[in-house]
Hints:
By secondary structure, the protein is mainly alpha-helical. It is 62% helix and 3% strand. The N and C termini lie far apart (45 Å). The protein has one domain.
Amino acid sequence: MKDSKRVGLLDEIRGFAIICMVVYHLLFSLKNFYSVDVPVFFDDWFDIIRSIFAGAFIFISGTVCRFSRSNLKRGAQCFFLGMLITFAVALVQPAFQIHFGILHLLGICMIIYALAEAFFDFVPPLAGILIFGFLFFALFGIPYGNPGFIGFNGLFTIPMPAILYNAEVLFPLGFRGPYANYADYFPLLPWFCVFAAGSFFGVYVRENALPRWFYKTRVRFLAATGRYTIWIYLLHQPIIIAILNIIFNER
């Protein structure tokens, strides 16, 4: 979004979400690369918190598509940056490869949005939010089981065919495949649903249909951080590793 179209609360939430992501990757590096005990990594609540902030980041990315003049170009650039991270991590930390991370996801989502923009314009915003919100929870079990499932625990579940998870080419969709480790894994199912819901919410934002306080900036540090999330995401992990190397090598 151009500065003249900045939405204060969206920038602040995105800034807070990227800060939380930096903290998560710091803890991840301490635990997996330097054998520092980080007990919260074994707590279910920590995974829930991680998903909430990642979901907020993805949702807002969908929202701001309503302000972009070239989502196809932005999507291609975002996916390219994701591939750069894939190759860089494969060289530096081959045990924790990123096959389909959040930048890959956002890039593909932007491209899908650009190609199907007529559909997103046709569906009423509220209906789009409700439909894709429901689909997100219904599809959430696809990438997190072996095999995964469609449905809701405690109500009904439909197991997915195991053959989908044995195919090595379906991991972008959520069928993990035979890979043992997926760091930063955000497949299209279910996370595209969050992006799509955000794009429908963006209609209300673009039309100034929300309360005035939604558009104002209150925490300038978070808003400024939210405007440079892509650069923070690209640079924070190399910086974290460099600093931790200095700290632990001096011991």
